[in-house]
Design brief:
Elements lengths: L2 H4 L4 H5 L7 E5 L4 E6 L2 E3 L2 E4 L5 E3 L4 E7 L1 H22 L5 H14 L7 E9 L2 E7 L5 E4 L1 E4 L3 H11 L6 H18 L7 E7 L2 E4 L2 H8 L1
Antiparallel strand pairs: 1-2, 1-10, 2-11, 3-4, 5-6, 6-7, 7-8, 8-9, 11-12
Length: about 220
């Protein structure tokens, strides 16, 4: 990301907009699990207690977001439109890696005045469950377990101990919830409620607050 300095972007200033949240993505043997908190902050102000940070892109792809609200929502809208266009043109759904590469190309194309966004794009396709981390400069890495936002160091403390590769999505759901709830206890920008989703070969599913409470218990 060093090239951002040479293009006149104050990376330290921009980076603060990426830090006020905690999101988690886990690649399991039969699907991917996505979890986030619901607090949006503006400096020391809690701007919203019900902010959405996990989005369905297609029936087989979802995404968690950290950063500026307008930028992340715009990226979600672009990706949804491009995925629909791809499906109409090709007669088949867009793959997870293709969606991640498209998003990375958009981020890189605007790296002179970057989207203030860190993303975890995940889904299930013919290659199985996959997760990609996308940074604001357009860099892209594939992960089995990932967390972004200011609470991510706390969340990783839970994930490193409790998440194991080859875990089922059902078994990973409470791990993801615990990671977010633990971050809430120590990170002031993470809070309020947990949002939880799973993507398997059956498609995308979000859990209600009542269901999440049962999973957490």
């Amino acid at each position: 990301m060093r090239h951002l300095f040479s293009r006149g972007v104050d990376l330290e200033k921009e980076q603060k907009y990426l830090e006020g949240t905690t999101t988690v993505a886990l690649a399991c043997k039969d699907g991917v699990v996505l979890a986030t908190d619901t607090r949006a902050t503006a400096g020391y102000l809690i701007a919203s207690k019900i902010a959405r940070k996990v989005y369905q892109i297609t029936e087989n792809i979802g995404m968690t977001v950290a950063g500026g609200v307008a930028d992340t929502q715009n990226l979600v809208n672009i990706l949804r439109a491009e995925a629909r266009y791809f499906s109409l043109r090709e007669g088949a759904p867009m793959g997870v890696q293709a969606a991640a590469r498209l998003t990375a190309n958009i981020l890189h194309a605007y790296s002179f005045y970057p989207y203030l966004a860190n993303l975890l794009l995940a889904g299930f396709d013919k290659d199985g469950p996959r997760i990609f981390f996308l940074d604001l400069d357009g860099s892209m890495t594939e992960e089995k377990m990932a967390s972004i936002g200011s609470g991510s160091p706390v969340a990783y403390g839970v994930l490193e101990n409790e998440f194991k590769e080859g875990m089922s999505a059902k078994d990973a759901l409470p791990v993801a919830v615990r990671a977010i709830k633990t971050a809430m206890k120590r990170d002031i920008a993470t809070g309020n409620e947990v949002m939880l989703a799973v993507i398997t070969e059956k498609g995308y599913k979000e859990f209600s607050q009542a269901e999440i409470k049962k999973i957490a218990a």
